[in-house]
Amino acid sequence: MIPLRDTNPTQTVPFVNYTLIGLNVLAFFFELSLGKHLNEFIFHYGVVPIRWTTDISQFQIDMFTFIPLFSSMFLHGGWMHLIGNMLFLHIFGDNVEDRFGHLKYLAFYLIAGLSAAFTQVYINTSSEIPMVGASGAIAGVMGAYVFMFPRAKVLTLIPFFGFFQFIELQAAYFLGIWFLMQMASGVMSLGIGADAGGVAWWAHIGGFAAGAILFPVLKKSRYQ
To answer: Which of 12, 93, 139, 150 could bridge to 172 as Cys pair (CB 3.0-4.6 Å)?
Structure first.
């Protein structure tokens, strides 16, 4: 399922969301400029679970223990990875920012991203694969959105055996199905590595859960 837009107008300009999208795009173009040094860069600035847990357990803590927790949120593994994430962020992020306010939204986004990273590290502590991408933080945005706007309509593109169908789904159905797909994939990955297929399923699950937990705390008092 591919979301194309929602029917949920905002009352404010979501400049934090626009800035986050811009930073992700700029970071990706910087990655492209690195050429043969890209893999080394990703290893240093992505979250590598075994490196992180080793640093903590052996008290070998320095700035590079924590910097990847933040830098990894702005790095992506390819064009489709970037475009897919930015599409979801564009559609769902503006409304969440509208309800939280700009500064709270930024704090929320980063906390959701951290929660996603910690969930993946906890589930797959021995992984040597760097984890990058904004999807954990964006999953947090989606977790807040589904409880704030469960009846908002999402225009969805559904590929079906070579054909494409457009359908409007309520956010509760679209995001509920999305979350169940992440759960199913996450559970199936437990026996073969929680980042099976190059996707950090448990980061998505952890981010979504963080969004659902945080939204009652951060929402504006006038939220209905």
So the answer is: 150
Are the CB atoms for 144 and 215 separated by under 8 Å? yes
Distances (CA, A) of 196 to 81, 120, 217: 16, 12, 34
Backbone angles phi, psi at 193, to 5 degrees: 110, 125
Sign of CA dihedral 47, 17, 101, 151: negative
Residue 188's SS3 state is helix
pLDDT at 220: 62
Q: Which residue has the higher pLDDT, 144 or 55?
A: 144
Residue at token pair 């979801």: 88
In the sheet that holds 2-6, the strands lie side by side as: 2-6, 153-160, 163-170
Strand, coil or helix: what is 179? Answer: helix
| Sequence-ordered list of residues with C-beta below 8 angstroms from that of 216, at least 6 positions apart, any chain | none
Band (pLDDT 50/70/90 cuts) for residue 59 is confident
CA distance 49 to 216: 30
Phi-psi region of 133 (alpha: psi -120 to 50; beta: other; left: phi over 0): left
Distance CA 140, CA 120 (A): 14
Q: What is the pLDDT of residue 193?
A: 56
How would you class 164 by CB atoms within 10 Å of its CB: exposed for 0-12, middle for 13-18, buried for 19 or more? exposed
Structure token digits, residue 121: 């590290």
Q: How far is residue 40's CA from residue 108's CA, in Å, rounded to a whole number?
A: 30
